[in-house]
Design a protein that fits this description.
elongated, mainly alpha, 123 residues, 0% strand, 4 helices
């Protein structure tokens, strides 16, 4: 049963990473589309945040893919931990735990940095 959980953990990990990567690439493409046409001056942070809110409001699939990626990342981490408690020499479970833990660490770090910089905070 441990190997089965490890396989499911690896599947959830792959789905989570792919969903989150598609959301990030899609949002970056939409975000840069406007500012690629702008003059070479750097836009103000308020203008960046306003455009980001407009893109998210117009394209609801971006937050949906991000939340789906986080859900599958957490599911992969949980299934990987369960698989490792049942069979110690389980490369699928170990790989899923490492990738999911690093993935969630990056997401939490980016969220913390954005909060410290005041991004997403109503003014």
């Amino acid at each position: 049963a441990g190997y089965t959980f490890g396989s499911y953990a690896l599947l959830c990990t792959g789905l989570g990473v792919v969903l989150f990567a598609v959301a990030m690439i899609g949002s970056a493409g939409l975000f840069l589309q406007k500012f690629a046409q702008a003059p070479s001056t750097a836009p103000a942070p308020e203008e960046l945040e306003q455009h980001l809110r407009a893109v998210i409001a117009e394209h609801a699939w971006i937050p949906a893919l991000e939340l789906g990626g986080l859900f599958f990342g957490l599911a992969g981490l949980a299934l990987g931990i369960v698989s490792l408690t049942q069979v110690r020499a389980n490369w699928r479970g170990l790989t899923a735990v490492i990738i999911c833990a690093l993935f969630l660490l990056c997401v939490c770090s980016a969220t913390g940095i954005a909060a410290m910089m005041g991004l997403g905070v109503p003014r």
